[in-house]
Amino acid sequence: MNSMPLMIDLTDKHIVIVGGGKVATRRATTLIAYCPNIHIVSPSLTPALHTLVTEDRISWSKKAFEPSDLEGAYLVVVATNEPKVNTQVKESLPKGVLLNHAADAQAGDVTFPSILKRGRLTMSVSTNGASPKLGAHIISTLSEMYDERYDTYIEFLYQSRQRIKALSIEPSEKQNLLQQILSETYLNEDQQREFMRWLQSQV
């Protein structure tokens, strides 16, 4: 699989997960942060998935898989421990619908990378199914480098950029200011507030 990383807006998409075990739980837990329209097809669920159903955060068809379950799906995740069911899902996939095959990354066209989010900052690492544990290890290392301070720092960069763009100064001066706030000095929230006050005074 020669995969290209993409950022996809799943807000209005319909996602179907076939399977209700641990892997399906991990997939649903990841997807629910990006998509409110997730449907599970499985005779049974893990307690964690059952809680999500009870809270109306996902929907559930308590039954065995049927091809009609894939109607209207944008992305299908097959995550069962039954090879026959996995094959049936793949063979029933409507044209143009994306597939994540949890048991065999090469059998699908979408893989789930390890993800680190810090506010507006998203970092992902994929080994194309070779070693998910390595991907998780790299993300763990990155989480120490880019700690929780980056939650507010990234928002500071965004707000500062909007205000700098609006200033009536030379383009080169704007670029200098944008470069200035990349200094680790501005990981400090007091420094962020001071810079924002200065920007406000320039309006």
TrEMBL record:
Top EC category? oxidoreductase
The species this protein belongs to is: Staphylococcus pragensis
Entry's EC annotation: 1.3.1.76
Q: Which domain of life is it from?
A: Bacteria
Annotated Siroheme synthase central domain ranges read 118-138
Q: Which InterPro entries does the entry mention?
A: Met8-like, NAD(P)-bd_dom_sf, SirC_C, Sirohaem_synthase_central, Sirohaem_synthase_N
The yes or no answer to whether the keyword Membrane is present is no
Q: What is this protein called?
A: precorrin-2 dehydrogenase
Q: Which SUPFAM superfamilies match?
A: NAD(P)-binding Rossmann-fold domains, Siroheme synthase middle domains-like
Biological process GO terms, please?
A: siroheme biosynthetic process
Q: Which GO terms describe its molecular function?
A: ferrochelatase activity; precorrin-2 dehydrogenase activity
Gene3D superfamilies for this protein: NAD(P)-binding Rossmann-like Domain, SirC, precorrin-2 dehydrogenase, C-terminal helical domain-like
Q: Which PANTHER family match?
A: SIROHEME BIOSYNTHESIS PROTEIN MET8 (PTHR35330:SF1)
A Pfam family matched in the record: SirC_C
Q: Name the keywords, alphabetized.
A: NAD, Oxidoreductase, Porphyrin biosynthesis
Q: Which reaction does it catalyse?
A: precorrin-2 + NAD(+) = sirohydrochlorin + NADH + 2 H(+)
